[in-house]
Write a structure and sequence with these properties.
It contains 3 helices and 4 strands, in the order βαββαβα. By secondary structure, it is of the alpha+beta class. The protein has a 4-stranded antiparallel sheet, with helices on one face. Helix 1 runs antiparallel to helix 2. It is globular.
Length: about 110
Amino acid sequence: MNNLEVIARLKIRPGQLEGFRSQAAEIMRVTREKDTHTLRCDWFLSEDRTACEVHELFPNEQGLIEHKMNTMEATVVLFRDYAFDHHSSIYGEVSQDFIDLVTARM
């Protein structure tokens, strides 16, 4: 299968930019320390600092699953305290098992 690219878009809660930045740094730390298949993980703040776009690249769906498992705790804190209105798009070929896994969690 080809690489999987994930593009996530989210908004930053008003007054929570510094907490957001700190929690994003924690997610990046965990990614660097634990992930074995993440090829890219870049965070881009909007010009007005009210939104963020995250670009991630994985060699396959197992890399994406590993990343989500590794960063789950830190991501829960990010959305509980600092971010909202999250939308993700996945680009690339995935198996039916992966589709079933993702849709079962919705």
